[in-house]
């Protein structure tokens, strides 16, 4: 009987040890599963952060932005592309060291009576400026900025309220806030709105003054205005009802 009792105790001990080993094994498996899940979650978060950061640092290039990069192989002065949907205005924008060269040269720097659309020489390409001031000729064939004069008709504006302007950094949409007639003023004329001097706002007051003057000069109310810091876009072309006349369209960047 004693031998049997010892045998039974031995079996019980073996069984208890087996159960403990089994429980420890299950605990280890559960721990390993939870640890692997945490590692997967952590890695997922890291990958998501990398994707987010890469998106912030390197924005997705649109087809038009990629086209601009290709065009710069032809001429590094090409800094943007201007388009008004439903019109003939669909051209590259140049930026030279003066405001004369592209009056009679195309984007390949070849002589051209039609010239090019070009950004005011004072615009700071590297750091940015308050106002993309873009000039262009007009002509009877409807090329360059000829179509811009159609904005004198509010019905035309109602159907063409936005302007697309693409740079190497972004594909942006601008909404029109003012349309007006102007001219190049003589130096001795006082209290006049020289819109063509506004590229870099030195402060909030100067920015707001420009927007206010543009709105006051507008031939109709667009219901759109701009706040200090919002990027502006101004298109300017000749207008022949007066000497040195100009026709101007001012827009602001649409918030995204």
Essential attributes:
eight-stranded mixed β-barrel; 256 residues; 21% strand; Sortase, Chain: A; 2 domains; alpha+beta
C-alpha end-to-end distance: 90 Å
CATH second-level architecture of the largest domain: Beta Barrel
- How big a fraction of the residues is strand? 15-25%
Low-confidence stretches: 28-57
- The CATH homologous superfamily of the largest domain corresponds to Sortase
The strand order across the widest sheet is 1-2-3-4-7-8-6-5
> What is the CATH third-level topology name of the largest domain?
Sortase, Chain: A
Count of helices? 4
Helix content: 25-40%
| CATH class bucket of the largest domain | Mainly Beta
Give the helix/strand class.
Answer: alpha+beta
| Total tally of structural domains | 2
- Overall shape: it is elongated
Total strand segments:
8
Main β-sheet, in a few words?
8 strands, mixed, barrel
Summarize the structure in words.
The structure is a single chain. The protein has 256 residues and is of the alpha+beta class. The chain has 2 domains: 1-58; 63-253, Sortase, Chain: A. The protein has 4 helices and 8 strands; from the N terminus they run ααββββαββαββ. The chain has helices at 2-57, 63-71, 154-159, 204-217, and strands at residues 78-83, 90-94, 117-119, 131-135, 162-167, 171-183, 232-238, 245-253. It has an 8-stranded mixed beta barrel with strand order 1-2-3-4-7-8-6-5. It is elongated. The model is unreliable at 28-57 (pLDDT under 50).
